[in-house]
Amino acid sequence: MSDQAAAPVTSLPVPNYFELLGGEDTFRLLVDEFYAGVAEDPVLRPMYPEEDLGPAKDRLRLFLIQYWGGPNTYSQERGHPRLRMRHAPFVIGEVERDAWLRHMRHAVDVLELTPELDRMLWDYLERAAFFMVNKDL
């Protein structure tokens, strides 16, 4: 047996993407930019029954914050996300998906993230948009 002590095992910290992406301010800007486009979009706006888009903005912001490692306020207030179930009452086809992605792409671009963080965020948002399609399944 060697007299030398074994090197301590260290693990790298798990990155907190919520913080890496810029925290709550980043998600607030992302969602505000996204909904500015939705407010004027003839395809998407009718999908939001509330007169004021504020509650929808709050729900999306809280969901994204939680998903990316921030506080779990969304689940505390609304329970499990169940995204497909919550969106089931709305017909979401290619046209709706593409409109959503167009506004979200603009919102992500406004954030001016590093290419790596941009790609990571966009990959998730794009997958989520395709997952929500429920028309012509």
Automatic annotation (TrEMBL):
InterPro entries: GlbO/GLB3-like, Globin-like_sf, Globin/Proto, Hemoglobin_trunc
Family label: Belongs to the truncated hemoglobin family. Group II subfamily.
UniProt KW keywords: Heme, Iron, Metal-binding, Transport
Name recorded for this polypeptide: Globin
Domain of life from the UniProt record: Bacteria
MF GO annotations: heme binding; metal ion binding; oxygen binding; oxygen carrier activity
Coiled-coil ranges from the UniProt annotation: none
Keyword Lipid metabolism: no
Entry-linked SUPFAM superfamilies: Globin-like (SSF46458)
